[in-house]
Write a structure and sequence with these properties.
homodimer, 190 residues, Jelly Rolls, five-stranded mixed beta sheet, four-stranded antiparallel beta sheet, 7 helices, 9 strands, DNA-binding
Chain lengths: 190, 190
DNA sequence: ACATAGCCGGGACAAATGTCCTTTTAATTC
DNA sequence: GAATTAAAAGGACATTTGTCCCGGCTATGT
C-alpha cells in the first residue's frame, strides 16, 4: 500500500556512493514539508531514500484526494519532467525524509548514460500507471465498505499511522462516511 | 478526450515504410474485436494507426469502467510488457482499426536501438499516468453533474458517437443516474 | 397491420453519502 | 482538579445514487 521501489533506490545509492556522478544531491524534509507543490513548475525529480510521504491532489472544491503513499525508492516529479507540465499534485512529508534530488537536465543525462536506469524508470512509471488505473476503477465501482476493507488490509502490515482524515482522503469520502463505514465493518466482523 | 499520439504513430509509420526493421506487423480489427483481454497474458504491444478503441476494466461485481478512449498513435499493452503482468483491462475496437503490432522482445530491441523512440514511449506513459491520476481525483471528488458536463465538453469536438452505456461506464455510474444527470443538465441550461 | 421482442426512459422506493450541528471524549493549561 | 479548548463521534436531515420495474417506442418478421 505504501509504494516502494527497492531496485530504484539501490541504483541511486550505488551511483551516489561510487562518486562517478556529481549530480545527485541529498536533501532532508521534515513532517509537513512539501517536496512538490501542485500548480508549481518542477525542474527536479526526487527519489526517496528513507521516510514516507503522501501524494495528493487538491481539487477546486477544496477537497483532497490522496493518490498514494510513497516510501523508499519511489520516484517523484518525473511526470512533470517528462511531460513538461506543472505539477498536478502535492507531495508532502509524513515522516522525516531523506531524498536524492536530480535536476531535469542531469536526469535526462543519467537516463542516457545508464541503460539499466532507463529500464528501471520505465518500469517504475508503468507500475504507477497500473496501480493508479486499477485503483480508480475499483474505487469507482465498489461501495465504501468494500474499499475501506481493502484499504485496511493494505495498511495492516505497515507500521504507518494514518490519520482518519488521510483515510477519508484516500477513499475520496468525507470523515462522516468513513466513521459510518468503520462502524459497519466492526459490527459485521463480530 | 480520445487520446491520440501523433509523434508515436509517425515514428512507427516511418520505421515501417523505411523497411529498416521487419518486426512491425500490421493488423486489422473490426468493431467489437478485442485487442487485449483482461486477465490474459499479453506478449505484444500495439500502436493504433487508424480507428478508435475503448479501454475498460471489468470489475468482479460485473460493472465496467472505461479508462479511456484511444485513437491514432496510442500505445496499448505496454504496461503488461514492462511490468510483466497479466492485462488489467480490456481493449475493444469501436470502429475498424488498423494497428502496428510488435512482439515484446522486438519492442525491447527497438527501444534499445532507437533513442528517440525510447523518449517518445516514456513520454507517452507519463502522459497516460498524468491523465489517469487527474481524472481519478476529479471524478472521485465531484458530483455526477459536474463530471458529465466535463465529459460532454470533451467529446463535443470529436465525431465519435458514444453510447449511453459507454458514457455511464466512463463516469462509473449507472444508466439511470446518467439519465437523471442529463435531464438536470439540460434543464439548467435553459 | 399485428404480434413479438428488445431497447429506452423514467417513476417509486431503498440505500448510500454528504452537510450541518450537537454531544462526547480526550488533552491542555492554569 | 477545574476550566478551557481541541479532536472525535455520531444524530438528524437533505441530497445523491442505485435497484427494481413498468409502460411506451421502435424494429422486425409474418
Amino acid at each position: 500500500m505504501i509504494r516502494i521501489n527497492k531496485e530504484l533506490v539501490d541504483y541511486f545509492k550505488d551511483l551516489k556512493t561510487s562518486n562517478t556522478v556529481d549530480c545527485i544531491h541529498k536533501e532532508v524534509f521534515y513532517p509537513g514539508d512539501f517536496l512538490i507543490h501542485q500548480h508549481k513548475k518542477g525542474n527536479t525529480i526526487f527519489i526517496i531514500e528513507r521516510g514516507i510521504a503522501k501524494c495528493f491532489v487538491n481539487e477546486d472544491n477544496g477537497r483532497d484526494f490522496i493518490q498514494e503513499f510513497v516510501g523508499e525508492g519511489e520516484i517523484l516529479g518525473e511526470i512533470e519532467v517528462f511531460t513538461d507540465t506543472l505539477s498536478f499534485s502535492n507531495v508532502q512529508a509524513i515522516t522525516e525524509i531523506t531524498a536524492f534530488k536530480v535536476y531535469k537536465s542531469d536526469f535526462y543525462k543519467l537516463l542516457d548514460e545508464h541503460h539499466a536506469l532507463n529500464q528501471i524508470v520505465i518500469r517504475a512509471i508503468a507500475v504507477k500507471l497500473r496501480n493508479t488505473a486499477m485503483r480508480a476503477s475499483q474505487q469507482q465501482l465498489h461501495p465504501i465498505d468494500y474499499n475501506l476493507k481493502k484499504f485496511m488490509a493494505l495498511i495492516a502490515n505497515q507500521q504507518l499511522n494514518v490519520s482518519k482524515q488521510d483515510i477519508a482522503d484516500y477513499l475520496g469520502i468525507t470523515i462522516r462516511s468513513l466513521n459510518r463505514a468503520l462502524k459497519n465493518n466492526t459490527e459485521n466482523n463480530l
